[in-house]
Amino acid sequence: MISVLTIPTRARISLGSLSLGLLFLGACAAGSTAGISLAHAETAAKSKSFVENFDKLDRKRWFVSDGWTNGDHQNCTWSKDQVSVGGGTVKLGFTKQQLKDREYVCGEIQTNRRFSYGVYEARFKAAAGSGLNTGFFSYIGPVHKQPHDEIDFEVLGKDPSKVQLNQYVDGKSVGGEKLVDVAGGADQGFNDYAFVWEKNRIRWYLNGELVGEETDPAKLPSHASKIYLSIWGSDTLKSWMGSFADPGANVAAEIDRVAFTAPGEPCQFPESVACKVELDVSQ
User: Fold this and answer.
1) What is the CATH topology of the domain spanning 47-275?
2) Residue range 113-154, pLDDT digits in tens
3) Is 150 a catalytic residue?
4) Domain residue spans in the chain?
5) Candidates 52, 154, 198, 254; catalytic one
6) Which of the residues 39, 48, 126, 135 has the least number of beta carbons within 10 Å of its own beta carbon?
7) Left, alpha or beta for 241 (phi > 0: left; psi -120 to 50: alpha)?
8) Which of 142, 143, 137 is nearest to 155 (CA)?
């Protein structure tokens, strides 16, 4: 059974060299390991490997965000009606519809469980449109009685030819918000996004190719996190996301697969980055 707590989520503001982490509005699963650090979660995480192909939306694995916003910067309200499954994919929609005090509604899913070191993967098609953001990321924060740690892939709809890599440590953006080219465009077809999180480094992969790496100990998250996928919009974060433009029709991000592979466990499908990288199993 899911218990919705007071709901803070996350977003980021980028103003030139200024990058501010905001609170992350999220909901926790009842009975999850609230308040535990990564060190205490490692043993439990070793049996959590999974591959989700979205033949259905397994509510034991996924929580659907519904009825709140991330804050004043977000121009849409999370709505369960913007999350739909069919044909082996899940669609996260963004459309004009008044809900509470917002003119738009948008979709987000998040895991009920937390995951620590390992390989995180998602195959998805992003949405285009200035002022929109399609994200695949790990997150933990104050709502979970933990510091704000995060590892990101984000496609800004103003320029879906690129994907942004970033990470947060204790509420601070420390990854430099690196932009990486997506051949053909992230909105034109499905691409494979993966990050390999270890105690001493993070590696980001796009379609199986290494596109980013971080080894500075001060820039590495250290707390077990939930997995999120979302689409949302903003009228105010213009310097980062571009000026918002009403899409004029329903738009959606489409997710084909999500997977997590824990260290020491076998890779779970042929295209998995876990099949080609070695993980430190001593963590």
Assistant:
1) Jelly Rolls (2.60.120)
2) 999 999 999 999 999 999 999 999 999 999 889 999 999 999
3) yes
4) 47-275
5) 154
6) 39
7) alpha
8) 137
